Amino acid sequence: MATVKAVKTASARSGNAAGARKAGAAGRNNPTLWLLIAGLIIVIDQLTKTLVNRTFSYGERLPVVPMFDLTLLYNKGAAFSFLAGAAGWQRWFFTVLGLVVACVIVFMLVRHGHQKMFAWALALILGGALGNVIDRMIHGHVIDFFLVYWNQSFFPAFNVADAAITVGAVLLVLDELLRVRKAR
What we know:
Blueprint: H1 2-28, H2 32-55, E1 61-65, E2 68-75, H3 89-112, H4 116-139, E3 142-150, E4 153-154, H5 160-183
Antiparallel strand pairs: 1-2, 2-3, 3-4
């Protein structure tokens, strides 16, 4: 009888320990940190866009260092001005697309927030996507202001949101490469 009681007690303790481990894992999977990072990206993005929009005239350039200027440009399309010349439907298309992507990313952060590099990538992409969605909803276009060039060759102007999306995409690729390498 004492042996059965000892086994039940040990079993209950290991069950509680497993429950505590499970609760700890769920805590690490909490998306709040990642949503705060995305929110910080949005705030920085919107503040810089507002500052440039109030300070510069459209098309005005301020050389910062060789090959890099600040400017004020508007993009009615997506990356690299894709569909910028369309009749206006692209504003709502890219707004809805950005919101759908944001929902998918939040879902993925809830499920995979414990994977740090993956979650960083998603948080950066989320913040960037929503920063540009805000522009489309308020202004009807995205405000761009970073201009990188070499002689007469210009990289399309971009903003903080675009930079966050790019860094996030690079982290996604790096995360996947490391995951594949680890699986070998």
